[in-house]
From TrEMBL:
Gene3D superfamilies: 3.30.1240.10, HAD superfamily/HAD-like. NCBIfam families: Cof-subfamily, HAD-SF-IIB. GO terms for cellular component: cytosol. Pfam families: Hydrolase_3. GO terms for molecular function: magnesium ion binding; phosphatase activity. Keywords: Hydrolase. This is Cof-type HAD-IIB family hydrolase. It comes from the Bacteria.
């Protein structure tokens, strides 16, 4: 067999189709990769509890979650990079004054600082994860928070970007942005895993479609953007495959030579 490779897959719009379902050909492709002896991992902006069922279905125990802030290799936590607590506290105060709700997320759960808000409902519902944040405005105190969701309209995040240089703000929904530690990315998590496994750059592959995949797609040697990917993600990738609904994973793995 050829030298072992590792393939990282984003979830939404990459592994899961536009209806948040796993295409049959994608599942079969991952099974085939494993049969050939390759490592398969997930690289996502989601929290670990948001894709536990998918990991179980695909039998994947290695993942980069929270856009690189919580990294697990074969079930073992390899790296953690929580948000700065004091900066998160003052950001919360500013958000409350602007009527911008926040959801706090650790590795086990997520809690909102308000009892109800339409922006939270619409954004979280779009993920179709069957999990909704309950109300706990103090959840971020005295625990490690790896990502927060700030709910606001496009461009309203500018005031936060100006004041909070310790954080990066990445829009994932018309009504919400991810708040992660500045400089954090899936690419960093991938580097930590591949270094631990000793897998050379030429044997690293990544599939993605969103703005939070740009660093990953630009830094991984064999990167593949989905046909449905954001234009900037396509520009960052070495290859472009079909739409996720058109056997994009299978076609992409053939494109890079991992499957026939």
């Amino acid at each position: 067999m050829a030298e072992k490779s590792i393939v990282f897959f984003d979830i939404d719009g990459t592994l899961l189709d536009h209806d948040k379902k796993l295409p049959v050909t994608a599942k079969k492709s991952i099974e085939n990769l494993k049969e050939k002896g390759h490592e398969v991992a997930i690289a996502t902006g989601r929290a670990p509890f948001m894709f536990a069922d998918l990991r179980e279905e695909l039998e994947i125990n290695t993942f980069v979650s929270y856009n690189g802030q919580y990294v697990v290799l074969n079930g073992r936590v390899l790296y953690k990079n929580p948000l700065d607590q004091q900066a998160l506290h003052t950001l919360t105060e500013l958000a409350v004054s602007n009527n911008h709700p926040i959801v706090y997320m650790d590795h086990e759960d997520m809690k909102a600082n308000v009892a109800h808000h339409d922006y939270i409902v619409e954004s979280i519902d779009s993920l179709k994860i069957g999990h909704f944040p309950s109300h706990d405005p103090l959840y971020h105190q005295e625990r490690e928070i790896y990502q927060s969701l700030l709910f606001l309209k496009d461009k309203e995040e500018a005031i936060y970007e100006e004041q909070y240089k310790k954080f990066d703000f990445i829009r994932w929904h018309p009504l919400s942005v991810d708040v992660i530690p500045a400089g954090g990315s899936k690419a960093i998590g991938i580097e930590i895993i591949t270094r631990e496994l000793g897998i050379a750059k030429e044997n690293q592959y990544a599939f993605g479609d969103g703005l939070n995949d740009i660093e990953m797609l630009s830094q991984i040697t064999n990167s593949v953007a989905m046909g449905n990917a954001h234009d900037k993600a396509k520009e960052a990738a070495r290859y472009i495959t079909n739409d996720v609904d058109e056997d994009g994973i299978l076609h992409g793995l053939k494109l890079v030579g991992l499957l026939k």
